[in-house]
Amino acid sequence: MTDATASNPALPRQPYRSSLVSGRKTVRFTFAPDVAERRLIAAALDLIDLPEFTYKGELSPAGRADVVLRADLSALVVQPCSVTLAPVRSRLADTTERRYAQEFAESSADELEIPDEDIEALPEVIDVAAVAIEALALALPLYPRARGAEFTEAAFAAPGVTPLKSEDLKPFAGLAALASKLKKPEEPEA
């Protein structure tokens, strides 16, 4: 379960028992939340709106007891601009693949390394909605920007005090002039 779904039990769910899939046949699914469910997801992910969201894929057996989830995400999201807070619309498309292993061993802190693929312990129930919401959260643009929005320099100071500028905060800016002075040979005094 993702952080968003764990902290908000009202989020939609679409559970599948892993025992129905492992070692048997592929289960196809479509997670397409209705308007009310999309509003809950949008609120959980701090979105302005989530007009479209579909997560379509399959749970397939892998070997005797493992399960592989493959799905395609398609969404239209509206986020606040990271500069102006104006609404920014983004069309998202992403593919998810996760492997759930029945004999999964957690790495100890001493052996921590990045795995070659996404492998998790096989849960009793795979909540496709929770995986879809997590995939959506990971696909969101980190710093959406409205057309024409640019960062400008902000200057703050108490009345009567000259505000600092970005140039003033560069500690090594004056070293270039000093270095060029040191490179010039000294002229003999006459």
Key descriptive features of the protein:
190 residues, elongated
Helical fraction equals: 10-25%
Per DSSP, what share of the residues sits in E-state strands of 2 or more residues? Answer: 25-35%
Total of helices: 4
Largest sheet: 5 strands, mixed
Task: State the order of secondary-structure elements, H for helix, E for strand.
Answer: HEEHEEEEEHH
- How would you classify the helix and strand content by structural class? alpha+beta
Shape: elongated
Tell me the count of domains: 1
Provide the spatial order of strands within the biggest beta sheet.
2-3-4-5-6
**Topology, number of strands:** 7
Average predicted confidence as pLDDT: 83
Low-pLDDT residue spans: none
What Rg is obtained from the alpha carbons, in whole angstroms?
A: 27 Å
Explain what the structure shows:
The protein is α+β, with helices and mostly antiparallel strands. The chain has one domain. The chain has four helices and seven strands. The strands form two sheets. The chain has a five-stranded mixed sheet, with helices on one face. A two-stranded antiparallel ribbon has the order 1-7. The mean pLDDT is 83.
